[in-house]
Design a protein that fits this description.
It is found in: Membrane. It comes from Lacinutrix gracilariae. The chain has 9 helices and 4 strands. The protein is globular.
Length: about 260
């Protein structure tokens, strides 16, 4: 397993996934801060840290569940016609549904951030919190909502890296633990940076659209989809890494130019 974790593919996947987990976690940090700020000042840090640790445990449990479903690769339904052949498995269903969800969620989030950026924050502020336990419950619920796209992103980034799904699961868990650890230690600096550069979060959501499309094509590939005699192939993850790295490089150059001005 160590050989796999130290391979270039696993390292690139880990770095990219950790970055995306942190970007996706920014909204989570904002909403957790809003919930915690309703408590007395001496309880705020405690509520935030306990909430994030429980969030990490929650994500790891969900990762085990989703990884189990993705591992069910045996087809249970075959369809053949003059122009379409497909062998459907639970693995392909999860990947296909996950890809559609990521594309829908990312597009909706981008639209919301552009047109009604304070909608979700106002909704959280309107909820009454009077005790530490209420705040923690609220934080766990918030994180569960935000965990879905995070987990699907992790599956999309690691699926197919190794034939043993357990190795891919370990890589996902490492990325989640690192990202949650960074959020616990550097929540405020990260939030301030993203507030000053909102394009980074929009860029992260755009990456999710790419990952969603990749999940859909991977679902078609794993179900041996054949359309009009053409087999659907899997998109090499190297293309995704290059697109993300190139976009980040352009964003960094724009940031440096803006800073100099």
């Amino acid at each position: 397993m160590l050989d796999f974790l130290l391979s270039s593919d696993a390292i690139f996947a880990l770095l990219t996934l950790t970055f995306l987990e942190i970007i996706l976690g920014i909204d989570n940090i904002v909403f957790i801060s809003i919930a915690a700020n309703k408590l007395p000042e001496n309880q705020r840090s405690k509520a935030t840290n306990i909430g994030l640790i429980l969030a990490m445990v929650q994500r790891i449990v969900l990762l085990f569940f989703v990884s189990f479903l993705v591992g069910l690769s045996q087809p249970f339904f075959n369809f053949e016609s003059s122009w379409l052949q497909i062998a459907v498995s639970w693995q392909s269903i999860i990947l296909f549904a996950g890809g559609l969800f990521l594309i829908y969620k990312s597009t909706s989030e981008i639209r919301e951030k552009v047109e009604t950026p304070d909608h979700d924050e106002n909704e959280i502020k309107s909820k009454k919190i009077t005790s530490l336990s209420q705040a923690i419950v609220q934080i766990v619920i918030i994180d569960f909502i935000f965990s879905i796209d995070s987990i699907l992103t992790a599956v999309g980034m690691t699926n197919g890296l190794h034939e043993n799904h357990f190795y891919n699961l370990i890589l996902m868990i490492i990325a989640v633990v690192i990202s949650i650890g960074i959020m616990i230690g550097f929540a405020n600096p990260i939030r301030k940076f993203i507030d000053a550069h909102p394009s980074m979060q929009v860029l992260g959501l755009a990456f999710l659209i790419l990952i969603g499309f990749m999940l859909i094509t991977e679902a078609a590939h794993l179900s041996h989809t054949n359309i009009f005699g053409k087999t659907v192939g899997a998109i090499p993850k190297g293309y995704l890494y290059f697109a993300i790295a190139f976009s980040l490089m352009v964003e960094f150059i724009n940031y440096r130019i803006t800073k100099k001005k």
